[in-house]
Every structure is written in structure tokens, then in C-alpha cells.
Design goal:
Blueprint lengths: L28 E2 L5 E2 L1 H6 L3 H12 L4 H11 L5 H8 L1 H4 L5 H10 L24 H14 L3 H18 L1
Antiparallel strand pairs: 1-2
Helix pairs in contact: 2-6, 3-6
Length: 167
């Protein structure tokens, strides 16, 4: 009988002085054959459906409950816990069914999403670039007056427009 020493599935990092971990990087995965696989390698090889699902939630900032509500119309028992499991399918083997993923992708297609409305009192922006020396002088002047950059620049613009209107 051949008794080989079992290779651990996950390696542990050695703690440093002060009990902190040796690195903030994720622990590498060691397969049962002893090969080391980094998390970035796994992430780059994610199935297309997992990447698309993560893209909806993370990069396009669609709330999880919006995703859940849409999938619930097809599968009534779908919840946010299942969504999380589907989003991490490489870790637990749970995948979202193709029809549900297609419904999500069609409903949240980029051309259908409206850009967020700007809810500011002053939605228009005017900006310029300054050298470090000039910026420091302007910043000190504003600080001496007890103003904000917004107040100072708005005052300059209004003053210039008034002079142009009066002249």
C-alpha cells in the first residue's frame, strides 16, 4: 500500500512580527498534484457567464437587489445569497442558468441604461490648470479671505461678466 503524505489544498502564510500576515495578497491555491495557482490566474480564466454577472454588479454599479428582482420573475426562489454564489461560481461550482443570464444582459444592456442625472445646484463645470507656485498663491489668498475655491472662482467670473456688461 502506497501511503503518500497529503498535500494541503490551501497554503497558509507565515505571520510576521506583530501577528500581521506576511502579505496582503491572497493565499495561493495548491492543487492536489502540488501545482501552485495564483488567484489572478483563476480570475483571468473565469467562465464567461461569471465575468458577465460580475460586470453587471461591480463595474456597471447595478444594485444586487435589481438583479435579484429580475431573476425572480423567472425563478421565484432566487435570492441575493444565490446571486452571490453565482458571482463566485469558480469557488463553489454554482452557475446562473443561461436563460436568466440572458434576461439580465438584455434588461441591463448598456444602451438601455440612462446616465444618472446631475443633482447639483450648479451642474456645469469650468476648470483650468495652474503651476504649483501659482496654485499655492491662489490657495493662500482664498484662505486669507475665508472663502472656498468655489466662492472665489464664482466671484471672479461674476465680476468679469459685470464689467463686460457695464462697459
Amino acid at each position: 500500500m502506497n501511503k503518500e503524505k497529503a498535500v494541503p489544498l490551501v497554503t497558509q502564510q507565515e505571520p510576521q512580527v506583530g501577528g500581521e500576515m506576511a502579505s496582503s495578497l491572497p493565499t495561493p491555491i495548491v492543487t492536489h498534484q502540488g501545482a501552485v495557482v495564483n488567484h489572478s490566474d483563476v480570475t483571468n480564466r473565469l467562465p464567461k457567464d461569471v465575468r458577465q454577472l460580475r460586470d453587471l454588479g461591480e463595474r456597471r454599479h447595478i444594485p444586487a437587489m435589481d438583479l435579484v428582482e429580475l431573476v425572480r420573475t423567472i425563478y421565484p426562489k432566487f435570492d441575493r445569497f444565490l446571486l452571490s454564489r453565482c458571482s463566485h461560481g469558480e469557488e463553489n461550482g454554482v452557475m446562473l442558468r443561461p436563460d436568466a443570464l440572458k434576461a439580465l444582459l438584455l434588461h441591463f444592456a448598456e444602451d438601455r441604461l440612462k446616465p444618472r442625472a446631475d443633482r447639483r445646484k450648479r451642474p456645469n463645470r469650468c476648470q483650468c490648470r495652474l503651476t504649483d507656485v501659482l496654485y499655492e498663491r491662489v490657495r493662500k489668498r482664498i484662505q486669507e479671505r475665508g472663502q472656498t475655491m468655489q466662492d472665489y472662482l464664482e466671484g471672479l467670473i461674476l465680476r468679469d461678466l459685470m464689467e463686460a456688461h457695464d462697459g
